[in-house]
Design brief:
Structural class: mainly beta
Low-confidence stretches: 4-91, 433-455
Helix content: under 10%
Largest sheet: 5 strands, mixed
Mean pLDDT: 78
Radius of gyration: 21 Å
Number of strands: 32
Strand order of the largest sheet: 1-7-6-5-4
Length: 455
């Protein structure tokens, strides 16, 4: 959802989540990016990044943000009211927090023991084993999307550009910018031909190979070597990774594109603030290719805010600004599978790992879903953030992989507008009541939070 552009106002925090299980039917060096802005970065060595096992449920710096309407501010972090040792013994719940007092967290990407965090401070931080490891300095606007492909890191920015970074082979903590999409050479070459200009609004034209609004999302097809970028300019651009060439610009939606996912069967899914989810297929036409619309899966009044495909490529999930999660089954020719209900406010991000699906919301909570066949269960609702949960990343738990085939465990990272990243340990086995460090909270009216079976 285009929060900044629409100025969406959030109501007071909803009551806590309900029943534990519900079902649905069927040394840190930095690299400079000084493309346009000669000003120095806002990074301050006086505010070092650190890992904290203190949970800030109510006293978060998020109160400085216009998203918050109710919280009070005494101190940025407080001691948790429960022993942290219980977390690790149970194998579930909150491990701690990654804190860098410099901006709201808008994007996350995890790869092995590395975590990349993007914020409105214009910087990308790199964390290793929950300690600050490095970072990039960028003067190009807040970092709205991060994606990792092989040895390259792609970041989408508010200025409409995509930047490409790579770690130094000799100094892995040092990352250097190795490219920008579109390239300067491509822009110059394209600008010489008047036919390469398209009308973006009345009396204004721009080159078709360049986004003219914020890049909101990125996805990559490793098999095809194609990078997809979605933007608030309503288009999806298709890039060839090998030479950074823009192959196509898809006029995808009537409003901002909030999510794009390269998925199974050569399909690409896009979700927009116009309330639609569309499926596109890439068709090769001689030496060129073109994406054609094959299906509109959803058309609704509220904005589509997030999309994710589960690891087995069998289900597409869609989060919306009404707090609902729709899903479609690949094995049933992408027929609608149902609606998951757990959040009172907008779903802002989704992630999937194993048989689990994670949803982060403007209601400050994260719901952990488990899929068994065609049935989804909400294993738990995680609480701890003091602001809307804007992004999620997940990696396998290398230290505690699980005690049996049915007990895989994962490390979950959640970024929030409270300026923190929470680190959680989650299991695919339903936890016993009371084992979770925080949540699920007991509601006054369970039906208010979990309305029951999916439609």
């Amino acid at each position: 959802m285009r929060e900044e552009a629409t100025g969406m106002a959030l109501p007071p925090e909803p009551r806590g989540a309900g029943s534990n299980v519900i079902h649905s039917d069927p040394g840190a060096p930095y690299a400079n990016d000084d493309d346009f802005d000669p000003r120095r970065s806002s990074v301050s060595t006086a505010s070092p990044g650190y890992f904290s096992d203190r949970n800030d449920g109510t006293n978060s710096p998020f109160v400085m943000s216009p998203w918050n309407q109710t919280a009070s501010y005494d101190a940025p972090w407080t001691q948790p009211p429960f022993p942290q040792e219980d977390n690790h013994e149970a194998g579930h719940g909150l491990i701690g927090s990654l804190v860098r007092e410099e901006g709201h967290i808008y994007s996350l990407a995890a790869s092995g023991d590395l975590l990349y965090t993007g914020s409105d401070s214009k910087n990308i931080r790199v964390w290793k084993n929950r300690e600050e490891y490095g970072g990039f300095k960028s003067h190009s606007g807040l970092v709205k999307a991060i994606i990792i492909s092989s040895e390259k890191i792609f970041t989408g920015h508010q200025d409409g550009r995509i930047r490409v970074w790579q770690a130094s082979p000799k100094k892995p903590g040092v990352h250097k910018r190795v490219g920008t999409l579109p390239t300067t050479r491509a822009l110059l070459k394209c600008s010489l031909n008047p036919s390469n200009y398209v009308e973006i609004r009345r009396h204004r034209s721009a080159l078709w190979i360049k986004h003219h609004d914020a890049v909101s999302c990125l996805s990559i097809s490793e098999e095809q070597g194609i990078l997809y970028s979605g933007s608030w300019d309503r288009t999806v651009k298709v890039w060839r990774v090998s030479d950074s060439k823009c192959l196509e610009s898809i006029s995808a939606h009537e409003d901002a594109v909030n999510s794009v996912v390269a998925a199974f069967d050569g399909l690409v899914f896009t979700g927009s603030a116009d309330g639609t989810v569309k499926a596109w297929r890439r068709e090769v036409q001689g030496k060129s290719s073109k994406h054609v619309l094959v299906h509109t899966l959803l058309a609704q009044e509220c904005a589509v805010t997030a999309l994710v495909v589960n690891p087995s490529d069998s289900v597409l999930y869609c989060g919306s600004s009404d707090g609902m999660i729709n899903f479609w089954d690949r094995e049933k020719q992408l027929s609608h599978g149902g609606v998951l209900k757990a959040h009172k406010l907008a779903v802002l991000c989704l992630a999937a790992a194993g048989c689990l699906v994670f949803s982060g919301s403007a209601d400050k909570s994260i719901c952990v879903w488990r899929r068994d066949g065609g049935v989804h269960s909400c294993l738990s609702v995680l609480h701890g953030h003091g602001g809307p949960v804007k992004c999620i990343a997940v990696e396998a738990d290398q230290e505690n992989g699980g005690t049996s085939d049915g007990d895989r465990r994962w490390i979950l990272y959640t970024g929030s507008l409270d300026k923190s990243v929470k680190v959680w340990r989650v299991s695919e086995v339903p936890p016993e009541m009371g084992q979770w460090a925080r949540g699920p909270a007991q509601p006054e009216d369970p039906a208010a939070s979990f309305p029951g079976p999916a439609r």
